[in-house]
Amino acid sequence: MAFQFFVHNNLTFGKDAIQSLSGIVENLGLKKIMLVHDPGVKFAGIPEKVMAELNKVDGLEVTVFGDVEPNPSNELIEKMYAIAKDAKVQGFVAVGGGSSIDATKAVNVLMTNPEPIGQYGGIGLVKNAVLPLIAIPTTAGTSSEITNVSALTDTVKVVKYVVIDDKLVPSHVICDPEFTRTVPKGVTAATGMDAMTHAIESYISNAANRLTRYHAIEALKIFFNALPKAVEDGNDMQAREDMMLGCIIVGYSFSNANLGLVHAIAHTLSARNHLAHGVANATVLPYVMRFNAPSCPDEMIELAKAVNLPLTGDKDKDMYALSDALLELKNTVGIKPLSELGVTEEDFDVIAENALLEVPLMFNPRQGVTKEDIIAILKQAF
Question: Does residue 116 have a cis bond before it (omega within 30 degrees)?
Answer without folding.
Answer: yes
